[in-house]
Structures are given as C-alpha cells and as structure tokens.
Amino acid sequence: MGGEGRTDVLKAHSRLFEHLALATDLAIIATSWIGAYVLRFHVFGHGGVPPFRDYALQLLPILVVWSFAFHAFDLYRPHRMASHLAEWFDIAKASTLGVLVLIAIMTFAFRSYDYSRIVIATFWGASIVGASLSRAVFREALRVARRHGYNQRYALLVGGGEPAAEVLRVLRMRPDTGIRLVGLLSDKLDGEDIPLRRLGGIEEVRAVLRSRPIDMVIIALPHTDYARLGAVLNEIGDEPVTIHFVPDLFSLASLRGGVEEFESVPFIHLRESPLYGWNLVLKRACDIGLGTVALLFALPAMAAIAAAIALTSGRPVLYRQERMGLDGRRFPMLKFRTMLLDAEHASGPRWATPDDPRRTPLGTVLRRFSLDELPQLFNVLRGDMSLVGPRPERPTFVEEFRRRVPGYMLRHKVKAGITGWAQINGWRGSTSIEKRIEYDLYYIERWSLRFDLAILLQTLWLGFRNRNAY
C-alpha cells in the first residue's frame, strides 16, 4: 500500500476510535448524571423526591458542554506516547470546567428549578471516575491488541548516540504503545552500538520513506549533529508522516533536564533543582515533623554528651563551623566539640585522619558513632539543612574540590543533609570525592520523598557507626 493510501486508512481508523471514544464518554456522563439523581433521592434520600423530568432537562446541555470540554482538553487525540496520569488530570480538569458551566446554565437558564448540590457534586466525581476508568479499560484492550500485532504504527529512527539509544530502550520497554521501529538511519559510528537494523545514512530518509510503509519519523540526533536537522527535514519534505523530535538533553543537561511549555513556547530545562513548588513544601514539612521528633528523642543523649564534654575537656561543648549549603550560601553548622581548643591553629583546615592527635578521648568515641552530628537537628529546624541531602563541606575544601571535580557545585542545588545517599553507601570522611559527587548527583536527579524516607530508614538500620568516621 502506498504512503498516501496508508495515511488515509490510518486517519479513518483514528476518526473511528475518536467517535467511539466520544460516544462512550457521553454515555458515561449521562449515566453518571442519572446515577447521581438515583443515589441522592432513591437510595439515600429522605422526604420528597423531585420529578426526574426536571433533571432530564439537563441531559442535553450536559452532553453538549462535556463534548466541548473534552475536545478543548485534547482528550481525543492519539495518546500513544502520552502519560496516562496526565490524561486523567485532563479528564478531571475538563469535568470541573463542565460542572462550572453547568452551574452557570442552571443559575441563568433554569431559575425556576431547584437542583440538589449533592447531585451535582456526586455527578462531578462520578464523571471523572467513570471517564477515567473507561479510558483505562480502552487502553488496556489496545495494549493487548498491540502486543498481538494489531493497531501498529511503524516508525523510522533517525540519529544516533545516546538519544537514539534511549528512544529504542523506552519503546522496547513499552510495547503497548504499538510503535514498531523498522530501522535506523545514522552515521555508522553513531549507530554501531544501537541494536537496530541500519538502513542507511542520516540524510537518506526520503528514499527509505518511499520504499517502506512508515507512519512516523523519530529524529534523535546527538547535539553535535544539530546542523544537519534542516537537511533531514528537507529530505522528509511533504511525505505524509508524523515527525517527532527528541532533543539531546542527555549530553546537554547537567541536572534533571526536562521540557515544559510556557504560553505555547517550549522551554528545555538543562539544569534545575528538583525541589520547587509542592516538592519544596513537602520536604520542608518532613524536615520539621521528623526533625522535631528526632530532637525530642535525642535531647536526653545530647544533654549527657554536653555534660561529659564539659567535665572532660571544658567549654565550649558546641563547635560552630562554617559550611556551604543550598545555592552556595554559607551557614554555621553545629557539632559537639570533639577536638582540642584551637586544634587548627597550627595546621590550618585539614581532614581528620585515623588516630588524629587533635581529638579528645571522648571526641574519638563521638566521631566514631557520629554522635557529634546530633546538634545539626537544630540546623534542620532552623532551615539551614535538611535531614537528607549531600553532606556540607567547608568553603576552603569546596574551592579545592571545585577545581578537581567537574560538576562539583551542582550538589548545592539542594539543601545539605545530616545523612545522604553517599553516606549510607560508605562515601564519607577522606574517601573518594569523585564517588561522593557521583552518589550526590544520583540522589538529586532521582529525588523523591520516598527516596528520602528510604535513606532515613537505612541510616537507622545501619546505625551511627561508620568505618570512615574519625
């Protein structure tokens, strides 16, 4: 079948699916409205029951409004590579918009009728749940069909390097999308590590499109080949295929890259902290809540340690040391004093070593079990630190590490922590700075509240003892 003929067939199938989905949605919306009426007045109702015809009057405006709302949120476009969660949010937003318009219609066009707010609220929730479940069932049926070779779309991958390898990986991981890669167009060096049949060079796309039944072209060029993007698009020309472009964030992004649309303009984020908006609020709430509980449990031990330090080596019992935290800001970090007074007067700032002569006898024990870190709970409650994050370093060492380790300063895109992913994996003290940064950046790139809780639980499970703490 020729390219144009196949495109016509696919469009016909797409329109059929759209009409079926619309009919199903409208049937669910109508059922939800009727069901809300029945639940309110015939199942849980008490007293008088308003005539059903009053509620039946609203069916026509409901179906019209929901039809426009669902179309306005693009709920009938193909969603092969879209997030199901995003689709459910769109359904919720469309139904919310529909309810607001429905209330306006009832207020201004049906003033003589008194509609139950419970019916409207029940209908709103049922419409969201019903439409979401029907979409889930529909997509599960499509997933099964696609796994058996039906409803397939054939794609040509153009590019190489990590972008093309990632496209191949995710499409093989998600066969339910029904997108089958027929081959790869790449320069031989770029594509030699990609386990996909090579059909030619990057700019041979037109010849391949005319010789094979292809529905979409996925362009995944390394950023070094972006100058050739125009030539690839010119070669595709007016061929009736869908074109997707995968930006090479893998080599350009240094921290949590992503794409966001702002007022129809796509913004590509090459470097961004994971802690913003609700993420920031949740992490701070966790720090305050768990930090307060931890401090209450630790206060008796902290009082005993403070008394022991005062008796064995005098005052002060607390030591304030300047460290670097979020966005490179400096703050005084609190610790129990574990070394002699003016321990760095002669040597200057330097790492602690095994059998360090600057330590007090009690300080040796406190450092071995990390009990000298307990006062940092006050830093957490004050907002200087978090319970979980990269361990803060002294500004003197930061400047040295910044020269030695590429990307070192990226660890300061989140608050410093009392414990962290690097620490529970043994990378603390005078261990490899490179490995520590690798673990810190892994934590930042994959941050979640669940990840924080897992690190805290591991910290408690492993205890406070660490062979690299001295």
Please describe what this structure looks like:
Helices cover 52% and strands 12% of the residues. The longest helix has 41 residues, at 3-43. The protein folds into three domains: 3-147, no CATH class; 153-252, Rossmann fold (3-Layer(aba) Sandwich), CATH 3.40.50.20; 278-462, no CATH class. Helix 1 (3-43) runs antiparallel to helix 5. The model has no long low-confidence stretch (mean pLDDT 82). The strands form four sheets. A five-stranded parallel sheet has the order 3-2-1-4-5, with helices on both faces. The protein contains 17 helices and eleven strands.
Strand order within the widest beta sheet? 3-2-1-4-5
Low-confidence stretches: none
How many β-strand runs?
11
Distance between the termini: 73 Å
Counted up, domains total 3
What is the structural class?
A: alpha/beta
In DSSP terms, counting alpha (H) and pi (I) runs of 4 or more, how many helices?
17
Biggest sheet overview: 5 strands, parallel
Global morphology: flat
Short description:
The chain is an alpha/beta fold and 470 residues long. Helix content is 52%, strand content 12%. The protein has 3 domains: 3-147, no CATH class; 153-252, Rossmann fold (3-Layer(aba) Sandwich), CATH 3.40.50; 278-462, no CATH class.
